[in-house]
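[DERIVE C-ALPHA COORDINATES]
===
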Amino acid sequence: MGSEQRHTTIRVSTLTRDKLAAIAKQEGRPMTAVIDDAVAEYEHRKFWEELRAAVERTRREDPAGWADHLAETAVFDRAAQDGLEPEDWSSHLPPKEHDADNAR
Protein backbone atom coordinates (compact mmCIF):
# COMPACT_ATOMS: atom_id res chain seq x y z
CA MET A 1 0.00 0.00 0.00
CA GLY A 2 1.74 3.15 -1.15
CA SER A 3 0.57 6.67 -0.54
CA GLU A 4 -2.67 6.08 -2.43
CA GLN A 5 -5.65 7.20 -0.38
CA ARG A 6 -8.69 5.05 -0.03
CA HIS A 7 -12.17 6.58 -0.18
CA THR A 8 -15.54 5.83 1.29
CA THR A 9 -19.04 7.23 1.16
CA ILE A 10 -20.61 9.26 3.96
CA ARG A 11 -24.14 10.52 4.36
CA VAL A 12 -24.70 14.23 4.78
CA SER A 13 -27.77 16.38 4.48
CA THR A 14 -28.49 17.82 1.06
CA LEU A 15 -27.98 21.28 2.55
CA THR A 16 -24.46 20.35 3.67
CA ARG A 17 -23.72 18.70 0.32
CA ASP A 18 -24.90 21.81 -1.54
CA LYS A 19 -22.78 24.10 0.67
CA LEU A 20 -19.79 21.84 0.16
CA ALA A 21 -20.28 21.81 -3.61
CA ALA A 22 -20.55 25.61 -3.69
CA ILE A 23 -17.33 26.04 -1.68
CA ALA A 24 -15.49 23.50 -3.84
CA LYS A 25 -16.67 25.19 -7.04
CA GLN A 26 -15.76 28.66 -5.76
CA GLU A 27 -12.27 27.49 -4.79
CA GLY A 28 -11.79 25.24 -7.81
CA ARG A 29 -11.03 22.24 -5.63
CA PRO A 30 -12.55 18.80 -5.17
CA MET A 31 -15.15 18.45 -2.44
CA THR A 32 -12.93 15.87 -0.73
CA ALA A 33 -10.15 18.47 -0.40
CA VAL A 34 -12.57 20.93 1.21
CA ILE A 35 -13.71 18.24 3.65
CA ASP A 36 -10.12 17.22 4.42
CA ASP A 37 -9.22 20.84 5.19
CA ALA A 38 -12.34 21.35 7.31
CA VAL A 39 -11.57 18.25 9.40
CA ALA A 40 -7.93 19.29 9.83
CA GLU A 41 -9.03 22.76 10.99
CA TYR A 42 -11.55 21.19 13.38
CA GLU A 43 -8.85 18.93 14.86
CA HIS A 44 -6.52 21.91 15.25
CA ARG A 45 -9.19 23.99 16.97
CA LYS A 46 -10.17 21.11 19.30
CA PHE A 47 -6.52 20.56 20.27
CA TRP A 48 -6.11 24.17 21.37
CA GLU A 49 -9.50 24.25 23.13
CA GLU A 50 -8.57 21.13 25.10
CA LEU A 51 -5.14 22.52 25.92
CA ARG A 52 -6.66 25.79 27.18
CA ALA A 53 -9.16 23.83 29.28
CA ALA A 54 -6.37 21.69 30.78
CA VAL A 55 -4.31 24.77 31.63
CA GLU A 56 -7.33 26.44 33.23
CA ARG A 57 -8.14 23.26 35.16
CA THR A 58 -4.56 23.09 36.46
CA ARG A 59 -4.66 26.77 37.45
CA ARG A 60 -7.94 26.28 39.29
CA GLU A 61 -7.49 22.82 40.83
CA ASP A 62 -3.74 22.62 41.49
CA PRO A 63 -2.52 25.98 42.83
CA ALA A 64 0.86 24.54 43.85
CA GLY A 65 1.39 23.00 40.43
CA TRP A 66 0.32 26.25 38.78
CA ALA A 67 2.79 28.22 40.92
CA ASP A 68 5.55 25.78 39.89
CA HIS A 69 4.59 26.27 36.25
CA LEU A 70 4.72 30.06 36.57
CA ALA A 71 8.09 29.94 38.31
CA GLU A 72 9.50 27.68 35.60
CA THR A 73 8.21 29.77 32.72
CA ALA A 74 9.52 32.94 34.38
CA VAL A 75 13.03 31.51 34.04
CA PHE A 76 12.52 31.19 30.28
CA ASP A 77 10.97 34.65 30.05
CA ARG A 78 14.16 36.14 31.52
CA ALA A 79 16.44 33.93 29.41
CA ALA A 80 15.74 35.92 26.25
CA GLN A 81 16.92 39.27 27.56
CA ASP A 82 19.05 39.76 24.49
CA GLY A 83 17.85 43.26 23.66
CA LEU A 84 15.97 42.15 20.54
CA GLU A 85 12.39 43.21 19.92
CA PRO A 86 9.83 40.40 20.18
CA GLU A 87 8.79 38.92 16.86
CA ASP A 88 5.21 39.14 15.66
CA TRP A 89 3.97 35.56 15.33
CA SER A 90 0.32 36.51 14.82
CA SER A 91 0.37 35.49 11.15
CA HIS A 92 1.05 31.92 12.30
CA LEU A 93 -2.03 31.77 14.53
CA PRO A 94 -5.47 30.68 13.36
CA PRO A 95 -7.86 33.64 12.97
CA LYS A 96 -9.65 33.06 16.28
CA GLU A 97 -6.41 33.09 18.31
CA HIS A 98 -5.03 36.03 16.32
CA ASP A 99 -8.19 38.08 16.99
CA ALA A 100 -8.02 37.27 20.72
CA ASP A 101 -4.40 38.44 20.85
CA ASN A 102 -5.28 41.73 19.14
CA ALA A 103 -8.10 42.36 21.62
CA ARG A 104 -5.62 42.44 24.54
Summary: The CA atoms of residues 18 and 24 lie 10 Å apart. Helices lie at 14-27, 31-61, 63-79, 95-102. The mean pLDDT is 85. The chain is about 65% helix and 0% strand.
